[in-house]
Structure formats: structure tokens, C-alpha cells
Amino acid sequence: MPSTLPLRPRIRDRRVLVLDQRRLPFDEVWIPVASAAEMAAAIRDMAVRGAPAVGLAAAWGMVLAHLAGEDPAEADACLRSARPTAVNLAHALDRMRPDWGDPKASEIRARTLWREVKRAERAIVRHGSRCLAGRVLTHCNTGPLATGGTGTALGAIVEGFRQGRITHVWVDETRPWLQGARLTAWELAREGVPHAVITDSTSAALMARGEVDAVAVGADRMAMNGDFANKIGTYGLSVLARHHDIPFWVMLPLSSLDARLATGEGIPIEERPQEEVRTFAGRAIAPSDTPFRNLAFDVTPHTLVTGIVTERGALLPPFDEGLLRWTAP
Questions:
Q1: Which of 162, 156, 172 has its CA nearest to residue 212?
Q2: Taking residues 297-314, what's their average pLDDT?
Q3: Residue pair 145/6 in contact by the 8 Å Cβ criterion
Q4: Residue 172 is among the residues annotated as catalytic for this protein
Q5: pLDDT band per the 50, 70, 90 thresholds, residue 148
Q6: How confident is the model at residue 6 (pLDDT cuts 50, 70, 90)?
Q7: Does domain 127-327 have CATH number 3.40.50.10470?
Q8: Which pick of 21, 73, 255, 311 has the fewest CB atoms within 10 Å?
Q9: Ranges for all domains in the chain classified under CATH 3.40.50.10470
Q10: CATH 1.20.120.420 boundaries in the chain
Q11: How would DSSP label each residue in 116-128?
Q12: With left for phi above 0 and alpha for psi between -120 and 50, is residue 226 left, alpha or beta?
């Protein structure tokens, strides 16, 4: 059974091993990464994914850059551009900056960052599990594979099941990379949590039938008013949940909060290659000259959010006051 860690936090032969999540759940393949450029490629190509995990991977990319004698500024720029929406990546690189050029100090800082992420996630799981009950729907993947090894929204869901609060989980397949079907379903299965994968377009019907009691998702970047970016399809879920009067929770570490943004209008939205949606399982699904749009994220307005969970606790509206208080020095 594959490890739940997205990468192995230790240096071996001047390399870090990254679990190739594109091959899960069928094959456990670890990619040896030896430079910042190789780590940026692993992030960009989705071998490692999930906002907290991407941040940690970038931190270890800087460790590798120092060991390889790379220019720190160039390595930082290369990693920073790998995926523009997840603010955790930039946050981690900012944390690594004081140790530019010092491999030993850089590795110590990367390990410290990993411990901080895991502590934050354990707190999110503790607070978040108290907010959910019954049949919960989730989108994309927010389990250990996407984080520091504990999970955010999915970690809270698993803990809620252990406490007897959650009875069933609906897992959006999450096109086009199928993170829900491939990764979330695998993580729930190994934890023994009852679940079923649904197509992304099935959630509305389930809500109308009264078969969804709550929605719990993660976030890649949140503005100071509570607007947030997450995997494409999240915004639609929030609209459906509001129409059907279903609680909609977003769970994230404070490192995913962008204190520079007042609203979600300024969140950069990554648009990925058309080929990712033009094909399925290696086969074309439309005429070769058909244009596609492949937005990787959408922005959910805070007005559609029931509550926000971070390592500091559960926050109800108005969000701006609470988020400002939580991020104050």
C-alpha cells in the first residue's frame, strides 16, 4: 500500500523522493528529484499536488538548490512560477529565504516548516470534525496526499467518522485529473469510511433527494474577506448547497490565507493545457480541432460559505473580522 506522505522529507544522495500521484492508486512510483527545476516540474506536472504539499515540496526544492550550488534567486523564481494559484507555495518560499545559500540551515528550516504544517492540520482535523455530521460531500482531494500527512477537510471527515458523527461520504470524481476518484476514494477505503464516487454533475441530484447533509472542501488561496479559490467545480457546489440549505464548510491552514488580498477578485487562476480535458484515458473525446478551456480553479464568494475552519478554530460570518484577528502579529 503506498505511503500517505506526498514526499519523503529527507535527503538521500542529494535527492528527495516525491510520490507520483498521477500513478495512484494503481502503482507506487517515487520520483528522485535533484534540483529546484526538477521539483518545479514535479509540481507543475501534478506529480505532487495539494496546496500544503506543494508548499512543502517547494521548500525542499530550495534545499536541493543549495546542495546543488544553484543560484537561490533563480531557483526561487523557478519554483514560484510552477503553480500560481496556491499561495502556500509562495509562503513556503518566503520562509526559506533567510537561509539562502546555507544547505544545512535550509534543511533545518524545511523540516521545521513540515512540523508546523502537521501541527496545523491536526488542529484543523480536531476543529473541523465537530462541524460535520451525517452524509458529507467533498470535492477534489484534501487528505494526507495533498498535505503534510494529516489532511484538512478529508482529515476532518475521517475523524468525524471515527467519532460516529459522519455516516457516509460522497466523493466527486473531480475532472479532469480525477483526484476524487483516484486519491480521495483510496484514502477513505484504507480508513474504512463508507463512501461512493459520483460524477461531478451528480451532486445537484443528490442534494435535491435529501441525501447530502454537509459539504466540506479545502482551499488553495483565501482572501481576507473569506472568498477562496479551490479546484474547479467548488463554486458550483457552493451555489447548490445554498439553494438546498446545506452547510458548506471550507477548511484550510492559515498559510493558505493571502493577507494581501481584500477579496477573491485578485486571486490568480491557473489555466492548464487543453490536452488535459481533450483526452480521457489517453483517447480523444472530441474532434482534434475542437478548442477547450481548462481552468484549474474557481473562486467561491464568502457569502456562500457557512463557516471557515483553520488551526485556530471554526469561524462563522462575518469572516473578515475573525480572519484579521487570526492573522494579526
A1: 172
A2: 97
A3: yes
A4: no
A5: confident
A6: confident
A7: yes
A8: 73
A9: 127-327
A10: 16-121
A11: HHHHHHHHHHHHH
A12: left
